[in-house]
Amino acid sequence: MDRMMIKSPAVLIKIVILVLALYMLSQITPIYLPIIAAVIVAFVLNPFVNAIVDIPLGARRHHLPRGIAILLVFLLAGLLLTLVTTFVLLPFINEFNKFVVDLPRLIIKIRDLTLLIEQQANLAQVPDNVRQLIVNGLGEAASYAVSLTRNALNTVLAFATQIVELVIVPVLAYYFLKDWKNLKDEFIALFPPTLEVKVVNVIEEMAIVVSNYIRGQVLISVIMGLLVFSGMYFLRVDYPLVLGLLATLTETIPIIGPIIGAIPALMLAYLVSPILATKVAAFYIIIHQIENHIVVPNIMGHTIDLHPTLIIISLLIGGQLYGIPGMILAVPVAALLKVLLRHLWYLDDDKKDR
């Protein structure tokens, strides 16, 4: 009885601390962006750091200290970023400025196109309710496509101008890469010795899921962005760099992201001619078949073992709570929750192994 009385206040204090910590985390959401960006950078660069550390030096087969290896990888990443800025970002900014200048004209064209479709529907004697549904749907789709393109690209440029966050990200990434094991050990030390093995298993499995997902998603997004840019360039659709970057961003949203990214391209192509829009639609269908049957299976494998229904529900919840960033993070968060719940549910190892 005395032992219960001693344990109860300790348990109560831990619960209170946990609740306060969760409340504080819910109130400081603006700091999540640089932290998430640093985690992504750390997971992407970690294989390169490990490869440099594993290189033997001299006859005694010494190895570079991890801190120096991280700085070398940062230097190489900085050189790569400089090349990307010179040959991709600067042309993109010029093209994006042209897109912003042309946006009012494009909106007028889209409205004229909507009126034309409405007139053709009247000539075809389409029922009023069907005609209204088509017109409203096209108008909403066009407005959403323009708004999405403008907001997404403005978000990218706004983030690029936040110098403080750009400085914090590599600093955090450096410490994540260098002291991950120490951070993990300190977190594990918060739990009783009887739970340490269980906590280690959960952390390691979560790390594998997040690591594979981030690396795979970054690679897939870059591949699809390059494919879209190349396709739009050769099909002579306006603003291929903008459409390529938009495809790169929307690829981070599973299932519905590629569809969202295709809408602006189809609208821009249709403003030129229905034939060009047909070619663009065929192009997107082909590359997404390639993505679904070749790119994703070979890069992602079964990293995120979630049913499509759970993925869609996760996207809806993430979008409702935090908009587009919530949709981007919804699937990896759902996968992590699945890992956590599975370990918490099967507390008995014998049950888990059956």
Automatic annotation (TrEMBL):
Record-linked Pfam families: AI-2E_transport (PF01594)
Bilayer topology: Multi-pass membrane protein
Classification via InterPro entries: AI-2E-like
Key words of the record: Cell membrane, Membrane, Transmembrane, Transmembrane helix, Transport
Transmembrane segment boundaries: 12-29, 35-57, 69-93, 156-177, 218-235, 241-261, 268-290, 310-337
Entry keyword annotation includes Magnesium: no
Localization: Cell membrane
Coiled coil: none
Source domain of life: Bacteria
Family: Belongs to the autoinducer-2 exporter (AI-2E) (TC 2.A.86) family.
Protein name (record): Sodium-lithium/proton antiporter
Organism: Sporomusa acidovorans (strain ATCC 49682 / DSM 3132 / Mol)
